[in-house]
């Protein structure tokens, strides 16, 4: 499990709750002052309505799966992939491409296994590049669609929070003659903005950022694999190929000293 995602969501909620309790003099009942039915309807209900207009039902199901994936501790060890490719390149250089047919580890990245299969089956460089690049592009498109759901949620939450603020202010200004209505209407005006901020900056925005990070990690690995397979297919020197692939990694990961 990716503890960082769980920690961030839980700790964010705890910080908000603690700050409310401190502001309310430590009285647990102060938490209830931030529960307002009209504000919930306009902010959460309005956000849900806007998301339903913007996305088909299938996107909601996909977004749920994508959300839970952010809790998974997915390993993207690019250095291990480079070492694997270097080993396969050495084997192919010594014994020919066909020697890879039974040497590929079934636990390797499926993208790497497919690429090596293309090389063993005799596909030329352009065909391999086109086929594998198309898969990378499709992965990027799929990831972008999943992230877009949370990006829209990040925008709609504060927007409906602001709409609720306007509703509360209008209601307050229309009833200034009655002091008893000022408090409830002001509560709607402020709490809706609070709800919108929570949706955007505690939940949807951070999730979208985590998805961007995961996408960058995965596409980096795919690009390394693509270049590695092309190098193996071309009979490139294993050490030269490894050096070329290591360029994709940071100097720290490569074990090099970073000059200041």
Biggest sheet architecture: none
User: Could you say how many structural domains there are in total?
Assistant: 2
- Summarize model confidence as the mean pLDDT: 89
Low-pLDDT residue spans: none
Residues in helices, as a percent range: over 70%
- Tell me, what's the shape? elongated
Oligomer designation: single chain
Q: Round the Cα radius of gyration to an integer and report it.
A: 26 Å
- Element string (H = helix, E = strand): HHHHHHHHH
The proportion of strand residues reads under 5%
Write down how many β-strands occur, each being a DSSP E stretch of 2 or more residues.
0
Number of helices: 9
Instruction: Give the terminus-to-terminus CA distance.
Output: 35 Å
Helix/strand structural class: mainly alpha
Topology, pairings included?
Blueprint: H1 3-23, H2 37-54, H3 57-69, H4 78-95, H5 110-120, H6 125-174, H7 179-233, H8 238-246, H9 251-254
Helix pairs in contact: 1-7, 2-6, 2-7, 3-6, 4-7, 4-8, 5-7, 6-7, 7-8
What labels describe this entry?
260 residues; mainly alpha; elongated
Task: Note down, in words, how this protein is organized.
The protein has 260 residues and is mostly helical. The chain has two domains: 35 residues, no CATH class; 225 residues, no CATH class. It is 77% helix and 0% strand. It contains nine helices and no strands. Helix 1 runs antiparallel to helix 7 and helix 4 runs antiparallel to helix 8. The radius of gyration is 26 Å and the shape is elongated. The relative contact order is 0.15. The mean pLDDT is 89.
